[in-house]
């Protein structure tokens, strides 16, 4: 497999047809750090907007290339090479009448490879399976998910090779072949031999590395889950079933391979299910622009087949809400509630993650509705409120759910009360390094007390300016832990909002109290790049 990288430079105006004395281009393709020649790299040049100007060349053993008989014009490059990716963007190269452009250097960075052999639970080679290299990628405002970054199919000996991997940390997942005729299927397995992604082995791939000997082995054939979809209303509604882990410690792109549910029947059979705690999702399509709806049923799976599971199709619930202004708020006459769109998001891994949630426009009297809300734990976001306003508390059917979240009940209406206030506090800090020098673009994460951390919207973040000063405003009064991070690529906004990642650095943080109407000042030293 070739890693194809197109270095496309846009041209706003088309070139005139060929004219003038032909010229030539010549240069070398090499590895970016050492300029080691790359043989067999494939290059294409063309004049943007001019048909028939395309020319191709392949580098020799010394990495050299040459294009001859090129009509005058401005040329763009396309380059690809096995297990390499282009480094940077090439400018347009001008070939004048009869000119030879020499000394061009195209730099490419080396990619890595993971290879090995897959085996079934008896130790026999497993052919026809898909093997994927997964890496963590930020998804939405509260997720870091393992996402496929490369894949390959095993041959009849079980061998596979995944090329063109960027330097990163990877986890290997094997998706066994699915045969809807055979009576047994396998669950998805992570290297070395676990169905739990939290137990997968980390594989570090560096530029040019050939990581071999990665031999995943299926640990079980899994079991079958059989049951029936019950439709009390007999309205011919159909549902698609998904079986997803409950509260996984590692979020992985939702995928359940051995799902042999026949949508023409109310009976279903799911095969190759590994032991674990699941939700069975019965997903029905909502009417646009409403999102899909579902009913979910908790299910425990052990080492024996599960029989007689009944999944009822019940309409999604509705949440009737109201915004209430707190008694400690000031200047309330300037607040127009009708300009607020209130949103709620989930930290659960559910079908449609990470963008699934609920949204509604607020009326002048503060009322709103979340219609057709499927079951999931939701938290109200205060990021759409007017300046200086924040969510003080949230009550759901009479109970305080500010820190715990809430979930609609299928087939029922619930009441949500959102109390907002502008009696907030401010944190003004200075981020310094170990030598007590200011850190421009240093990052700050402000964590609430542990009992409130289930709500991701209570985490505040900030970035320092040139002199290391950082300012976070509109903070709900309370106790917090402030953690400073250096200006490093790994400390992205998604990282700062990911609680498990940030908590690893908590011992380098500082306790801080934020009071209503007060500005708390603090000097912070950045945590080390690695918490270990």
Number of helices: 2
Number of folding domains? 5
Mean pLDDT: 87
Strand content: over 45%
Structural class: mainly beta
CATH class division of the largest domain: Mainly Beta
Backbone CA Rg: 29 Å
CATH topology of the largest domain: Immunoglobulin-like
Keywords:
five-stranded antiparallel β-sheet, mainly beta, 532 residues, Immunoglobulin-like, 2 helices, 5 domains, six-stranded mixed β-sheet
A few lines on this structure:
By secondary structure, the protein is mostly beta strands.
Structure characterization notes:
It is globular, with a radius of gyration of 29 Å. The N terminus is likely disordered. The longest helix has 5 residues. Strands 11, 12, 14, 15, 16 and 20 form a 6-stranded mixed sheet that branches. Strands 1, 3, 4, 6 and 8 form a 5-stranded antiparallel sheet that branches. It contains 2 helices and 39 strands. By secondary structure, the protein is mostly beta strands. The protein folds into 5 domains: 108 residues, Immunoglobulins (Immunoglobulin-like, Sandwich); 100 residues, Immunoglobulins (Immunoglobulin-like), CATH 2.60.40; 90 residues, Immunoglobulin-like (Sandwich), CATH 2.60.40; 105 residues, Immunoglobulin-like (Sandwich), CATH 2.60.40; 101 residues, Immunoglobulin-like (Sandwich).
């Amino acid at each position: 497999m070739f890693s194809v990288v197109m270095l496309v430079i846009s041209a706003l105006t088309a070139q005139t047809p060929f004219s003038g004395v032909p010229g030539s281009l010549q240069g070398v393709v090499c590895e970016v750090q050492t300029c080691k020649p790359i043989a067999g790299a494939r290059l294409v040049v063309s004049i943007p907007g001019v048909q028939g100007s395309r020319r191709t060349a392949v580098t020799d053993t010394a990495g050299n290339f040459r294009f001859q008989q090129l009509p005058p014009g401005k040329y763009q490059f396309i380059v690809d090479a096995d297990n390499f990716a282009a480094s940077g963007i090439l400018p347009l190269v001008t070939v004048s009448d009869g000119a030879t452009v020499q000394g061009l250097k195209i730099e490419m960075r080396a990619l890595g490879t993971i290879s090995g052999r897959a085996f079934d639970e008896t130790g026999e080679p497993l052919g026809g399976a898909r093997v994927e290299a997964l890496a963590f990628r930020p998804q939405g405002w509260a997720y870091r998910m393992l996402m496929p970054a490369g894949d390959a199919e095993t041959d009849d000996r079980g061998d596979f090779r995944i090329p063109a991997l960027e330097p990163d940390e990877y986890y290997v997942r094997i998706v066994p072949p699915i045969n809807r005729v055979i009576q047994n299927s396998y669950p998805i397995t992570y290297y070395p031999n676990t169905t739990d992604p939290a137990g997968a082995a980390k594989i570090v791939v560096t530029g040019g590395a050939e990581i071999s000997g990665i031999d995943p082995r299926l640990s079980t054939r899994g079991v079958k889950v059989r049951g029936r979809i019950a439709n009390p209303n007999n309205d011919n509604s159909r549902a698609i079933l998904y079986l997803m882990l409950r509260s996984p410690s590692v979020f992985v792109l939702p995928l359940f391979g051995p799902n042999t549910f026949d949508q023409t029947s109310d009976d279903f059979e799911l095969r190759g299910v590994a032991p674990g705690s699941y939700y069975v999702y019965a997903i029905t399509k909502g009417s646009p622009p409403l999102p899909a709806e579902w009913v979910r049923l908790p299910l425990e799976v052990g080492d024996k087949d599960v029989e007689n599971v009944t999944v009822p199709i019940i309409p999604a619930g509705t949440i009737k809400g109201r915004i209430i202004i707190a008694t400690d708020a000031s200047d309330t006459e300037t607040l127009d509630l009708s300009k607020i769109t209130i949103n709620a998001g989930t930290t659960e891994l559910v079908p449609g993650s990470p963008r699934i949630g609920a949204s509604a426009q607020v009326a002048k009297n503060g009322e709103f509705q979340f219609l057709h809300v499927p079951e999931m734990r939701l938290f109200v976001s205060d990021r759409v409120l007017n300046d200086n306003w924040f969510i003080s508390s949230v009550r759901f059917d009479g109970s305080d759910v500010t820190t715990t979240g809430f979930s609609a009940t299928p087939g029922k209406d619930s009441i949500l009360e959102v109390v907002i206030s502008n009696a907030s506090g401010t944190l003004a800090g200075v981020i310094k390094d170990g030598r007590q020098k200011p850190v421009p673009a240093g990052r700050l994460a402000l964590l609430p007390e542990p009992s409130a951390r289930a709500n991701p919207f209570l985490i505040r973040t900030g970035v320092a300016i040139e002199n290391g000063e950082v300012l976070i405003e509109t903070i709900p009064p309370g106790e917090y832990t402030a953690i400073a991070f250096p200006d490093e690529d790994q400390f992205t906004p998604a990282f700062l909002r990911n609680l498990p990642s940030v908590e690893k650095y908590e011992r380098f943080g500082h306790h801080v109290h934020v009071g209503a109407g007060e500005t708390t000042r603090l000097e912070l030293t950045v945590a080390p790049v690695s918490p270990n």
